[in-house]
Design goal:
Distance between the termini: 100 Å
CATH topology of the largest domain: Serine Threonine Protein Phosphatase 5, Tetratricopeptide repeat
Number of strands: 0
Radius of gyration: 38 Å
Strand content: under 5%
Helix content: over 70%
Shape: elongated
Structural class: mainly alpha
Number of helices: 14
Number of domains: 3
Order of helices and strands: HHHHHHHHHHHHHH
CATH class of the largest domain: Mainly Alpha
């Protein structure tokens, strides 16, 4: 009797499976998955539970949906499609698929693609260029894509920045931005136009730069006097005022100069001259040379060709 009951139950179950409305969409879903049609397969697996939520096929279909969601996320990552990766999250609820998806979200590649999309969407194209330059230097699959963006967009963006900087009341460094464009995109029409602007600015500043150079030489003279006088006093017999006076004379310090090492007047003249230069890149360069003289007595002569003789010196 028991065996007959068991056979009856098995037979009933088989009959139910045979009549299961979930069977057909399950078969179609497996066929689509085998053909690599992941999106279609996910949709068909979703139809399985709609056809019969109590079917044993339903639980299997739910697991397959999560597995396919992870596979689609991986495909999206390979394509650089961040949106496609993110949209799979709603299909994954837990288990191994959830762990695999969460691990995917922590990869350097996905972070790089997300950063690329964010930069590409910026309305401030100068900020976008800066972000793309960072990505282009990174060791990731996104570097080539960022370089493509820069090749297409950066010359025009940099030229706009050069134009803004090279005005008499401009912002930014005409010299530095022009040099950056020439180095990054040397064969472009934008680089040639920028160089004309840089040369024009150099011509405008030429006399001011020559005067700044004269102040640097004067600062060097004071530094040299100080070094030579200090050495003279050090080598002289026990100090006395006459020894200091003699040392001053021996190193060429004018007798009528009160405090020969006071640079207050020079400092004021220097600051005024830097204000006339305006270009922050040139100011930074000039100030570094002034500070080098003050700290170590070393003077690095500048290359200041006459405008039109040859291109202005670049950093």
């Amino acid at each position: 009797m028991t065996s007959m009951k068991y056979v009856g139950i098995v037979g009933f179950s088989l009959a139910m499976i045979g009549c299961d409305g979930a069977k057909e969409p399950m078969a179609k879903a497996r066929e689509a998955e085998a053909a690599g049609k992941l999106t279609e397969a996910k949709t068909l697996y979703g139809e399985v539970c709609k056809a019969n939520e109590k079917s044993p096929f339903c639980a299997v279909a739910k697991r397959r949906i999560e597995v396919l969601a992870v596979r689609e996320a991986l495909a999206g990552l390979a394509e650089g499609n961040v949106a496609k990766v993110k949209e799979q999250a709603s299909s994954i609820t837990g288990g191994p698929a959830k762990r695999a998806y969460d691990a995917l979200g922590k990869t350097k590649t996905l972070s790089a693609w997300a950063a690329f999309d964010e930069a590409n969407a910026l309305t401030d194209k100068s900020a976008a260029r800066a972000k793309m330059e960072e990505l282009a230097q990174a060791s990731s699959p996104i570097a080539d894509k960022a370089n493509e963006w820069l090749t297409k967009n950066a010359p025009g963006l940099l030229l706009a920045e050069v134009k803004a900087a090279c005005k008499s009341d401009g912002t930014g460094s005409c010299m530095e931005l022009g040099a950056k464009l020439a180095k990054a995109h040397p064969s472009t029409a934008e680089a040639r136009e920028a160089q004309e602007l840089v040369d024009a600015e150099y011509k405008r500043l030429y006399q001011t730069l020559k005067q700044a150079e004269g102040l640097l030489v004067q600062r060097l003279e004071v530094s040299n006097w100080q070094a030579k006088r200090d050495l003279c006093v050090k080598l002289a017999p026990p100090e006395s005022e006459s020894d200091i006076v003699a040392c001053n004379e021996s190193v060429g310090i004018p007798a009528d100069r009160g405090d020969p090492f006071n640079t207050d007047f020079l400092e004021k003249a220097w600051k005024k001259k830097l204000d006339e230069v305006k270009d922050p890149g040139r100011i930074k360069e000039l100030q570094a040379r002034w500070d080098k003289i003050a700290s170590s007595g070393i003077y690095d002569p500048a290359n200041l060709p006459k405008p039109g003789d040859k291109p202005a010196a670049k950093k």
